Amino acid sequence: MATVWTAMAVAAVTGVAVLGFWLGTVVIARHHVESAADLGALAAASHASEGPDRACDRARWVTDRMGVTLLTCRWQRLDALIEVEAPSSTFPGLPGLSAHARAGPTDQPP
Question: Residues 32-55: pLDDT tens digits?
């Protein structure tokens, strides 16, 4: 009887550990996508003086290096609005991760 209880306890602990690792992987992937969006927006905003097309090219360069896809690069006044998406998740059943960010000059009030 003790062997059965031990096997059930080991299965439960293993299940909790796998769930914890899975959740940690998803959280890390989400942070990576958000960081890519932030850096893309900062790159676009820092090259705004070169024109919107060139600034968006710079944002695309940054997001490509981070392994995500730049979906949109828009401008609202002097602010760069960036939306990115990560490739489909390695876990079946989960949607692809996406994030958006905004960056602009710091010398003007929001």
Answer: 999 999 999 999 998 888 888 999
> How many domains does the chain divide into?
1
The one-letter amino acid at 75: W
Beta bridge partners of 107: none
Which domain, by its residues, includes 8? 2-103
pTM exceeding 0.90: no
Residues 6+ apart with CB under 8 A from 66: 32, 35, 36, 39, 40
Only one residue has tokens 């992937």, namely: 29
Residue 108 belongs to some domain of the structure: no
Amino acid type, 90: T
Query: DSSP letter at 96?
Result: P
Q: Is position 109 within any domain?
A: no
Residue from 41, 109, 50, 27 nearest 71 by CA: 41
